[in-house]
Amino acid sequence: MAVLATLAYALVDTISKYLVRDYPVTMVVWARYTVPTLLLLAVFLPRRGRSLFRTRHPWLQLSRGLLLTAGTVFIVCAVQVMPLAEAQAISFIHPVLLTLMAVLFLGEKVGRLGWIAIAMGFAGVMIIIRPGGGLFTWAAILPLGLAVCYSSYQLLTRRIAGVENSINSMVFVMLFGALAMSATLPLSWVAPDGAGCLLLLAVGIVSGCGHFAMIKALEWAPASMLAPFAYIQLLWVSLLGMLVFNAWPDAITFVGIAIIVAAGLMMAVVRRRSG
Q1: Low pLDDT (below 50) residues in the chain
Q2: Which structural domain range is residue 107 located in?
Q3: What is the domain count for the chain?
Q4: String of b and e for 215-225 (b: at least 16 CB within 10 Å)?
């Protein structure tokens, strides 16, 4: 299920990159949240009723929703102006960034191995961006923006883990994202044609399938065990980028991706040991 989730997320970013050639980023992000929200409500609302909206931490849930939505805007903007694989690879520094934030804000200890992983992660990003190279532009900030938002989102998720129902938390995140992006539609709406409607629906459905798959995976295995599987998404986006957009990462980019993956896997080991 975790591998299926990574494939779904890669497809979502691929469809998003295709859509933003003709439609505003806000419309694409709106579809990515609104369709899954409707699917979640259709599945869980009849079973759970009002209990689906119970939370002890409404402001934390709101903050999580806004952070994840902002991160999605960043990554869709990134794939609009950058190759798919490079944008995703830079954003995958988020596990390393999360650990750094936990050290700075929560006082967690990571040890020598953790600091090595942090240094490797940032080195991998710099190899991909290549100061002085073609990717060393303002656009490189966009996937880093996703990494910061997603790390902050995960930091808040730690605060409510074991306290809030996981399905309720997912519904809140998607609902807040759908509402926030719906507010932008009057300013950015472009009437889609038939193919555009199908792709906007598809990007939302595939996004919803990815979230469902990850929910199921988390029901069957702990997050620490599933964390390494997330990096399979980099394989999918590389393949899809080559097949759909004829964008072939060069050897140096693959070296940077490999270093980021190694840093993330090392960080997963550090977390499992400390957990």
Answers
A1: none
A2: 2-274
A3: 1
A4: eebbeeeeeee
Residues 86, 135 contacting (CB under 8 angstroms): yes
Give counts: helices (H), strands (E), the chain: 13, 0
CA distances from 215 to 98, 165, 209 (A): 21, 11, 10
Task: Encode pLDDT of 139-156 as tens digits.
Answer: 888 999 999 998 898 888
Distances (CA, A) of 25 to 77, 79, 103: 7, 10, 34
Calculate the alpha carbon distances from 31 to 17, 198, 217, 250 in Å.
13, 11, 24, 32
**Residue that the structure tokens 């990134």 belong to:** 78
SS3 1: coil
* CA–CA dist 58, 188 (Å, integer): 29
The answer to whether the CB of 68 falls within 8 A of the CB of 173 is yes
Q: Is the whole model's pTM more than 0.90, yes or no?
A: no
